[in-house]
Amino acid sequence: MSLQLTYQDVAEHNTKNDLYVVIHDKIYDITKFVDEHPGGEEVLLDVAGQDATEAFEDVGHSDEARETLEKLLVGTLKRNPGDPKPKSPKPGAVAPAANNATAGIGVGLYAVMLIGGLIAYFAYNYLQQQQAAQSA
Ligand code: HEM
């Protein structure tokens, strides 16, 4: 069976007894699967009638989960103008922020080390001079 449904059509199937979700622009009837889902029914009801791509991918489901999904396929999404854009996980979204944060700490740390090094260097020179002056 390969239907072409719009977001509006999918949104009508948003109850436990009639539950569709969109994942990667494909539509799945997960009504029968709700009770079997190892992750519980709550998370599936949260995305009922909606785009669940991000939620599904964020969990890092196994290949087995993806096979289960293929068996529940009912059709593909027909995107109308003005519909939400395709959702996909953004792996880069978190990583660069984390990198920037560590880069910030890194630069700060270098600055502290540099200043500390300079202070130690001048203190050492000063003490050497003092000693030289005393022994002279
Ligand atoms: C709609 C189709 C879905 C299918 C066919 C599916 C299938 C599965 C399967 C087979 C597992 C067992 C572990 C694995 O094989 O990866 C699992 C675990 C899990 N799923 Fe889903 N899932 C679906 C959607 C979702 C969604 C939308 C969420 C939202 C957050 C979700 C959250 C979880 C969580 C948290 C677990 C881990 C449970 C645990 O290890 O205790 N799943 N799912």
UniProtKB/TrEMBL annotation:
Domain Cytochrome b5 heme-binding intervals: 2-78
PROSITE patterns with a match to the protein in the record: CYTOCHROME_B5_1, CYTOCHROME_B5_2
GO-annotated cellular components: endoplasmic reticulum membrane
Region of interest called Disordered, as start-end residue ranges on this chain: 77-97
Subcellular locations according to the entry: Endoplasmic reticulum membrane; Microsome membrane
Membrane disposition: Single-pass membrane protein
Keyword match Transcription: no
Gene Ontology terms for molecular function: heme binding; metal ion binding
Superkingdom of source: Eukaryota
Transmembrane segments: 107-127
GO BP terms, alphabetized: sterol biosynthetic process
Keywords per UniProt: Electron transport, Endoplasmic reticulum, Heme, Iron, Membrane, Metal-binding, Microsome, Transmembrane, Transmembrane helix, Transport
InterPro entries listed in its UniProt record: Cyt_B5-like_heme/steroid-bd (IPR001199), Cyt_B5-like_heme/steroid_sf (IPR036400), Cyt_B5_heme-BS (IPR018506), Cytochrome_b5 (IPR050668)
Family: Belongs to the cytochrome b5 family.
Protein name: Putative membrane bound hemoprotein
Organism whose genome encodes this protein: Chaetomium thermophilum (strain DSM 1495 / CBS 144.50 / IMI 039719)
Lineage: Eukaryota, Fungi, Dikarya, Ascomycota, Pezizomycotina
